[in-house]
Amino acid sequence: MSSPSLLQGNSLAARDVRSMIHPYTNLSTHLTEGPLIIQRGKGVHVYDEEGREYIEGLAGLWCASFGFGEEELIKAATEQMRKLPFYHSFASKSTEPSILLAEKLLEVAPMPFSKVFFANSGSEANDTVIKLVWYYNNSRGQPAKKKIISRQKAYHGVTVAAASLTGLPPLHNDFDLPIKNILHTSCPHYYRYGKDGETEEEFAARCAAELEQLILAEGPETVAAFIAEPIMGAGGVIIPPATYFGKMQAVLKKYDVLMVADEVICGFGRTGEMWGSEALGIRPDIVTCAKALSSAYLPISAVMITEEIFQGMVKQSEKHGALAHGFTYSGHPVPAAVGLRTLQLMEERDLLAHVRKVSVRFNERFQALGDHPLVGEVRSMGLIGAVELVADKKTKRPFDASRKAAPKASAAMQEAGVISRAVAGDNLALCPPLIITEAEIDTMFDRFTQGLDVVAAAAKAENWD
Ligand code: PLP
């Protein structure tokens, strides 16, 4: 953050405070603390306006998979910009990059999907899914089958419908959300919600039983779809028990409820598999993806659907005419060209093999943090993970929220030269660019641990309890 003197006069920080509204920022403290202004990036590093170097431990927002200086992606964007800087896909218009990217996505998809719809963000993709599911169920003569089940602590975005899917109270409080027809079932976090004496497997079975009870209570004829991130990201990097999705999907199948996998974070190698669905045993009917689809260099997201759902939409066109949904930038040729090059680079450089190799070190370093006095639980897979801070390791008692343990640790980590993120409660997440090396992983964890140590010392000195 900027020093108070920087907030005077005509500095960039001062001009930021005078002009911008920042997402997911305390707008009140921002007025006095100002921004951290990132000026440039290279590899896994970013540099602030004073030239200080940071390891971007969250790949920005769980997204910049190729780091911050991949020339191939810059080239793909500039070449496409020169050739055709914009064209749309409304009214049967198309462009080569969007066609090639759709084909490539269908080729690498976790299921035999039939068609791809492009949007610009994860929120828009998830919003689109809700509309398409409703449209599809109307087409097949099931107009009452409209409810979507999400989960507590899920994160699916911020638009009116996507924020409703999100299961985190700050996204609903005073925004008058969630909207109707969106329900939330239990969060599959064994450490927090498993009962005394319950095995992980029993806990997973209880989650599935709770899902079934909810469907039965609402009436199966009213429940259309279930949406889930394979690993919950913003909810705290929550990795469900191994048998969880198998059990949940058996229930969904029984009641003809579609399975939607939100692959916005997990897609494109994050778990060491191409898709989180593959790593976590999900067989989705619909997939949404974004972020690492273009290594975040330009905004693009996608929804992939089955032939059966597509045929329902075709039937609607026979009834209504044009599909009355789409964004000006759906299939924009420049982000599509960058997305295509991203997927090609993943193959050319065998990025999945790299992730599998370096994630061994990443997971070892995470597991070692289990011994830290502040850490209650460590959760990690592939190149994503988090530690959960607790006041008492034995009882799992959290710190009082007013202590702001994780935000303070995150600030101390930033001071030590690693950008991490405090998420949902006292969790600190790491999700670095997938190109990270073992040596960089070591430096990242050394700095991360330094930040934890600062907070452990403060907790001791100030007798937090
Ligand atoms: N879904 C998941 C799993 C996410 O993590 C996010 C964003 O972090 C979104 C959806 C929303 O994406 P966007 O911020 O691009 O709208």
Could you please describe the fold and organization of this structure?
This protein has 465 residues and is an alpha/beta fold. It has 16 helices and 15 strands. The strands form three sheets. Strands 4-10-9-8-7-5-6 form a seven-stranded mixed β-sheet, with helices on both faces. Strand 1 and strand 2 form a beta hairpin. Bound molecules: pyridoxal-5'-phosphate. Pyridoxal-5'-phosphate (PLP) binds next to helix 6.
Compact description:
The chain is 42% helix and 15% strand. It has 465 residues and is an alpha/beta fold. The strands form three sheets. The protein has a seven-stranded mixed sheet, sandwiched between helices. Strands 1-2-3-13 form a four-stranded mixed sheet.
Which structural class is indicated by helix and strand composition?
alpha/beta
Largest sheet: 7 strands, mixed
Terminal Cα span = 28 Å
Q: Might you state the CATH topology name of the largest domain?
A: Aspartate Aminotransferase, domain 2
Strand content: 5-15%
Number of E-type strands: 15
CATH first level of the largest domain: which class?
Answer: Alpha Beta
Q: Tell me roughly what share of residues is in helical segments.
A: 40-55%
What strand line-up does the widest sheet have?
A: 4-10-9-8-7-5-6
Number of domains: 2
> Based on CA inertia axes, which overall geometry fits?
globular
